[in-house]
Amino acid sequence: MYKDLPGPRGTRTSLELLEAVALGCFALQENWTLSSKEAVERKIIRQAQFVTKGEPDQSLFSVPTSYVERPPSQVFAEYLRRYPESHPLPAESDRGADEVYEKARQ
């Protein structure tokens, strides 16, 4: 499947999906082309490395016993602890994400 995607005036973005419809899975390759009058054309290719026929192992969908559920603010804090050179989100982002998280849990 090939399609041109909307974008800013003077630019062109297209996407080509190479699919294996018989496998009933995601595209095996995505070819993105981004171009404009001012820039060199860029291509991004995302490709599956291998495919195995059949259903995925159900263990892939089970929650590990060591899993600890955390609200977004704790996840963001842990990310900053591990990657201190990254930029923290504004505090109101933490609060807003936590509110959405708590509502979804009810």
Question: Could you explain the architecture of this structure?
Answer:
It is a single chain. The chain is of the alpha+beta class and 106 residues long. The chain has two domains: 2-47; 67-105, no CATH class. It contains two helices and four strands, in the order E-E-E-E-H-H. The protein is extended, with a radius of gyration of 21 Å. The model has no long low-confidence stretch (mean pLDDT 88).
Helical residues, percent: 10-25%
Mean pLDDT: 88
What global shape is seen?
extended
Separate helix tally: 2
| Spatial separation of the terminal alpha carbons | 41 Å
Per DSSP E runs of 2 or more residues, the count of β-strands stands at: 4
Q: Helix/strand-derived class?
A: alpha+beta
The secondary-structure element order is EEEEHH
Question: What tags apply to this protein structure?
Answer:
106 residues, alpha+beta, four-stranded antiparallel sheet, 4 strands, extended
